Structures are given as C-alpha cells and as structure tokens.
Amino acid sequence: MVPPDAALIELDERGSLCPAPVIALGRAMAARPDGGLHIELLADDPAAQYDVPAWCRMKSATLVSQTELPDGSGFRFEIRV
Predict the structure, then answer these.
(1) pLDDT at position 34, please?
(2) Angle at Cα 34 formed by Cα 14 and Cα 63, nearest 5°?
(3) pLDDT at residue number 32
(4) Cα dihedral across residues 62, 28, 69, 19: positive or negative
C-alpha cells in the first residue's frame, strides 16, 4: 500500500541486465531527493534478487516486499525512500 503522502513511481526493467535496475532506482531517487517515494520495480534478471536488496541497504531505503511474479518470469520489488 502506498502511503498517501508518497509519490508512486513504477519502473519496468524487465529485459534489462543488472546493474540497469539499480541504476533506474538511483535515477528515480535522484528525481526526488527529499524522499517520499514508493517505487514498484519489475525486473527479470536473476541478479536483481540480490542487487536490489543490497542497493536498498546501501541507500538506507526500505525494501517493503520482494516477490516472484506469479508466472515465474521475474520479480516485483516495493521500495520506500
């Protein structure tokens, strides 16, 4: 659930190899440096399941959820900055 005061950003990085998904996260974060972001990221590179949580730890972002897509084609991440 997106907090009422947060801006929702949806990023579809399916088809992109890492580090592209975390670069996209960094660009989204830079667009609103004061925070207040809720980012939904889709990625299908297997490395994303490790790179995205590591990026969140390094940037002090909250990884709200990390789930495999129902059809097994990738992952969905919810991140709060």
Answers:
(1) 85
(2) 45
(3) 85
(4) negative
* All residues at 6 or more sequence positions from 79 whose CB lies less than 8 Å from its CB, including other chains: 25, 37, 38, 39, 40, 41, 52, 56, 61, 62, 63, 64
Tokens 């996209």 belong to residue: 24
Residues 6+ apart with CB under 8 A from 26: 55, 59
The CA-atom distances, in angstroms, between 54 and each of 2, 5, 58, 59 are: 22, 26, 6, 9
Residue 50 neighbours by CB distance under 10 Å: 10
Residue 3 is which amino acid? P
Predicted confidence pLDDT, tens digits, the chain (81 residues):
666 777 899 999 999 999 999 999 999 999 888 888 999 999 999 999 999 999 999 999 999 999 999 999 999 999 999
Instruction: Write out the CATH class of domain 7-80.
Output: alpha beta
Q: How far apart are CA 70 and CA 18, in angstroms?
A: 21
